[in-house]
Amino acid sequence: MRTPHAPAPHAPPGPRTPARSAAAPAALLAAASTLLLALVAAEWRPLLDLDAGISRTTHRWAVAEDGLTQAARVLTDWVWDPWTMRLLCAVAVVVLLRRPAARWTAGWLVVVVAVATAVQQGLKAALGRDRPVWADPVDTAHYAAFPSGHAMTATVVLGLLLWVLRRHGPGPDLWRTALAVAAVSVAGVGLTRVWLGVHWPTDVLGGWLLGALTVVAAVAAHRRLCPAAPDGSDRARPPSPSPEPPTSDDPPRRPR
């Protein structure tokens, strides 16, 4: 009597490749950035009215709350200033350069931050969006408004540094602290720019979106060009060969 063959088990799906895992968030961020950019360039009236309404309200608060406004000015001009962010990135680059295996990542950081700055300045020049104008300003700023350089630079630098830190296996306390500091800084710098009346809310939103898109694209490029090793270094290790299954049906003998 013939025994029916058992159906072959289905192979489990393989792990998602870095390029495929980054494609969805990159596409979403690119679509949102492009839509916002188009609406700002077209001066879409509902968007302008929303910007103006939020800005008028926050400006009244900034004039009335002098203590908060002074604190916002210190934070935005010193703690979260784009040059402070670039200096922080430079420190990380120096630390990485001391490790031969991490020198590729150090160069990658420099290139990405430089490209992000060039894109930001190019968009400002191309759009030429005016900043808010107030009869009683609490702060001043120069150059065009969109996108916010403070918001975009903080997003790019802190996002990249978080990824580099995660890559080198930080302890849970250090990782939670770094994540909290980065999140507060990225959100805080955007809020201070609106509070001080030097940016429209959509300028800040544009800086966040473009900064996040830059981080996702840069990380995907790093993974493709320099795969991560299990120990967090920049050198990929070849996969260790899996042990061959025993060919005998007899159980292995225990050593005496």
Automatic annotation (TrEMBL):
Annotated segments matching region Disordered: 1-20, 227-256
Keywords: Membrane, Transmembrane, Transmembrane helix
Matching InterPro entries: PAP2/HPO, PAP2/HPO_sf
Pro residues bias (residue ranges): 1-16, 238-249
UniProt KW Membrane keyword: yes
Spans traversing the lipid bilayer: 78-97, 104-123, 143-165, 177-198, 204-221
Record protein name field: Phosphatase PAP2 family protein
Species: Streptomyces lusitanus
Lineage of source species: Bacteria, Bacillati, Actinomycetota, Actinomycetes, Kitasatosporales
